Amino acid sequence: MRVTFLGTGSAMPTGERYQTGIVVTDEETERHLLVDCGSGVLHRLQQSGVGYEEISTVLLTHHHLDHVADLLPLLKARWLAGEEHLEVVGPTGTKSLVDDLLDVHDYLRGRVDLQIREVGAHEFEVAGFEVEGYEARHSLPCLSYRFGDKFTFSGDSEAFEALANFADGCDVLVHDCSFPDDVDVDNHPTPTQLGEALAGSGADIGKVFLTHLYPHTEGRHEEMLQSIEAQYDGDVRFADDLRTVEL
User: Fold this and answer.
1) Given this model, what pLDDT does residue 181 score?
2) In the annotation, is 66 catalytic?
3) What are residue 130's DSSP bridge partners?
4) 0.85 exceeded by the pTM?
5) At how many degrees (to 10) do helices 71-80 and 41-48 cross?
6) Please, are residues 81 and 52 in contact by the beta-carbon 8 Å criterion?
7) Which residues contact residue 137 at a Cβ distance below 8 angstroms, ignoring those fewer than 6 apart?
8) Is residue 176 classed exposed, middle or buried when 0-12, 13-18 and 19+ CB atoms within 10 A define those classes?
9) Cβ-based neighbours of 12, under 8 Å, separated by 6 or more
């Protein structure tokens, strides 16, 4: 499996980080799954070498704009390129979200064979991958996703021990760490909160990558890592746009 970060930023953009998007690739079949589709992800797909033509399925963690903004641009690009299918999978409300977007941009309705499926905190199959959903803690209903023993993505979520345990035994956990410790925030974790949750869970995780980074974190990465390391002795790193991790 190969995980490629397309966007590691947030709703407040920086020049270096686009909004949320991750490509999960089965290296044996070269099958690709896009997890979240925030602003800029369509461009990052081209820069990554995967390309929007290869993305026929999108798995959404939740419906905030910085996770879905490029969904219809992806649909339009695939239509114009002659691609015939797109599947959108996500939590409850995904069908209403897509229907509402198509009501606004109604000229896109019927341009591709669009399949929409809603999933929850259970096991399911998507684009050939076996995935398990887990309920995150965020301001909208949000699912974390686990791909076997390889990869877990928190989506947007506060840090809590049960979510860390959800990733127990995984090679990589990609976790929201939006702000440094001196920002008072709900629905996202600070480094100390994340470190406490990881340590308290006792979960065995190979590497932790920090993502969903607001501009407040710029220039403070070392400080943030030190806050986590004061609580948790695992391997923690910052994710970057277009970084690829082989699993």
Assistant:
1) 97
2) yes
3) 125
4) yes
5) 50
6) yes
7) 157, 158, 160, 163, 187
8) buried
9) 214, 215
User: Does an H or E element contain 102, and which?
Assistant: helix 94-104
Q: What does DSSP say about strands 113-118 and 85-90: parallel, antiparallel, or unpaired? A: parallel
Choosing from 26, 36, 66, 100, the catalytic residue is 66
Segment 157-167 mean pLDDT: 98
Task: Find the radius of gyration of the CA atoms of the chain.
Answer: 17
Tokens 């686009």 correspond to 18
Give tens-digit pLDDT for 169-211. 999 999 999 999 999 999 999 999 999 999 999 999 999 999 9
Predicted pLDDT of residue 72 = 98
Q: What is the pLDDT of residues 124-152, one digit of tens each?
A: 999 999 999 999 999 999 999 999 999 99
pLDDT at 14 over 90: no
150-175 b/e with 16+ CB inside 10 Å = b? bbbbbbbbbbbeebbbbbeebbbbbb
Q: What 3-state DSSP class applies to 154?
A: coil
What are the strands of the beta sheet with 21-26, ordered from one edge? 113-118, 85-90, 57-59, 31-35, 21-26, 2-7, 244-246
161 contact partners, CB below 8 Å, separation of at least 6: 197, 200, 201
Beta bridge partners of 133: 145
- Residue from 161, 11, 5, 135 nearest 62 by CA: 135
Confidence of residue 13 (pLDDT cuts 50, 70, 90): confident
